[in-house]
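Priority: medium. Attachment 1 of 2:
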């Protein structure tokens, strides 16, 4: 068979060979280039810095006046104890150990175990280096505040500042002490000094506490939101978010409160105050089963008597008297345990006895507490206990002190307004009673599962106000009772 001839132009017949040669050359070149690139040293990138150990993180937080995680505190305590076994003369390590124990006791509600250990460590630090030991003095102030011993806290903090006026972490301890003692002018001066010395998340959070007590809720919320946004650790951010949630609940914003409490628990699962706040808010939302579970979870890991009181009152509001009594028994047990750690729970016991026990005993406890540390919370509790014991004329003096915008700081509190309104109603002061009961429900319509229904019932019984302006003095101004006495032991006597 005759073969077919290639009829293409000779130049065309050469093109594939040229293409193939070009392709082979290109591939070879790429291979050489690639090999050359492979032989070049790679650009070195430093490995990421390892995360600080939990103990180091806790030490940083404690030194900066910020909350630390519970695992971090446990690690820090273990490290300091191991170090001090071979270096028993290290005064700073003793002070750090004592301060860490204070924070651990506060976070776990294990006052009976942690607070005596904290005191031993801090006193050892002072013994090892008595002079110039502002760190241990500050730790003693923190311990006294945790125990609700505000006179001692003031003494220790003032001693620390006498040694070092620039030690900014001592000022928050002094703010706590002055607030507990009802010295609101000193509280304001101390905050001003703190703000001059330092800024940052922890300082903003302390400022928010003072703003809240002065009735400046918007300023308090803004300061806490800024603190949470600038927090340097999840545990710190969770602590400030829990406080934002508290403020939201106090003004009756349940959804916002729940959002912040849950965000705090997600950041730090050991943030039991946020879990108790979540329970409080769920109860206000009518989600009772979830609220009960949240309270139980909080109590399991941080068995504060305050949580037992709240859970007991929730049970009582549901008609579950036996379950409520179990919680009230737990409250008494936890108070006894805390007392072994030096904690003064007289305020809480007085509040509990006034509503669920012996009102006369409540008055006795709270009178002694008022003489020792006359803060706003004690004035409110004593006024309510006197009312429950049938002593309404005297009760009004203390209820007025608790809601006094000039001397008491002006905190906007639904329970305080409720207590004052109920006392005024009992005294036949219809106009101011109506005003304060309405104010309580306006501030927070969900402030208590037991007392909100009482406030609504009292308002219904008072009825609508008669037409026309109220009689002179009937609006219930701060001096409607003829003015606050200035002698010791009466509201207004120790306030400045």
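Attachment 2 of 2:
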């Amino acid at each position: 068979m005759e073969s077919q001839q290639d009829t293409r132009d000779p130049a065309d017949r050469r093109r594939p060979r040229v293409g193939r040669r070009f392709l082979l050359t290109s591939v070879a070149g790429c291979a050489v280039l690639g090999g050359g690139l492979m032989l070049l040293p790679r650009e070195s990138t430093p490995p990421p810095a390892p995360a600080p150990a939990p103990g180091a993180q806790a030490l940083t937080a404690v030194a900066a006046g910020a909350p630390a995680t519970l695992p971090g505190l446990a690690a820090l305590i273990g490290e300091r104890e191991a170090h001090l076994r071979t270096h028993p003369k290290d005064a700073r390590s003793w002070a750090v150990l004592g301060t860490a124990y204070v924070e651990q006791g506060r976070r776990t509600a294990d006052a009976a175990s942690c607070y005596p250990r904290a005191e031993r460590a801090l006193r050892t630090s002072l013994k090892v280096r008595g002079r110039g030991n502002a760190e241990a003095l500050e730790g003693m102030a923190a311990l006294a505040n945790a125990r609700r011993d505000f006179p001692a806290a003031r003494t220790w903090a003032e001693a620390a500042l006498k040694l070092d006026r620039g030690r900014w972490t001592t000022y928050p301890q002094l703010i706590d002490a002055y607030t507990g003692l009802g010295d609101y002018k000193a509280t304001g001066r101390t905050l001003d000094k703190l703000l001059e010395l330092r800024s940052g998340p922890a300082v903003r959070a302390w400022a928010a506490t003072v703003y809240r007590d002065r009735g400046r809720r918007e300023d308090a919320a803004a300061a806490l939101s800024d603190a949470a946004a600038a927090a340097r650790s999840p545990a710190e951010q969770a602590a400030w978010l829990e406080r934002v949630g508290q403020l939201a609940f106090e003004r009756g914003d349940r959804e916002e409160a729940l959002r912040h409490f849950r965000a705090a628990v997600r950041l730090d699962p050991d943030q039991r105050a946020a879990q108790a706040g979540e329970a409080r808010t769920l109860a206000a939302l009518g989600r009772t089963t979830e609220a009960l579970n949240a309270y139980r979870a909080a109590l399991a890991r941080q068995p504060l008597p305050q949580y037992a009181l709240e859970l007991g009152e929730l049970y009582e509001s549901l008609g579950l008297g036996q379950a409520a009594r179990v919680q009230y028994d737990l409250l008494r047990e936890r108070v006894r345990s805390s007392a072994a750690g030096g904690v003064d729970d007289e305020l809480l016991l007085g509040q509990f006895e006034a509503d669920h026990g012996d009102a006369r005993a409540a008055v006795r406890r709270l009178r002694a507490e008022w003489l020792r540390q006359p803060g706003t919370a004690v004035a409110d509790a004593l006024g309510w206990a006197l009312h429950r014991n049938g002593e309404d004329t005297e009760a009004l003096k203390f209820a007025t002190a608790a809601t006094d915008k000039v001397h008491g700081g002006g905190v906007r509190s639904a329970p305080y307004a409720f207590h004052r309104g109920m006392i005024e109603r009992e005294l036949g002061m219809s106009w101011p009673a109506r005003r304060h009961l309405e104010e309580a429900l306006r501030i927070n319509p969900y402030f208590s599962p037991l007392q909100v229904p009482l406030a609504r019932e009292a308002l219904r019984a008072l009825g609508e106000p008669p037409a026309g302006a109220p009689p002179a003095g009937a609006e219930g101004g701060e001096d409607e009772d003829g003015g606050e006495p200035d002698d010791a032991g009466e509201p207004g006597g120790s306030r400045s």
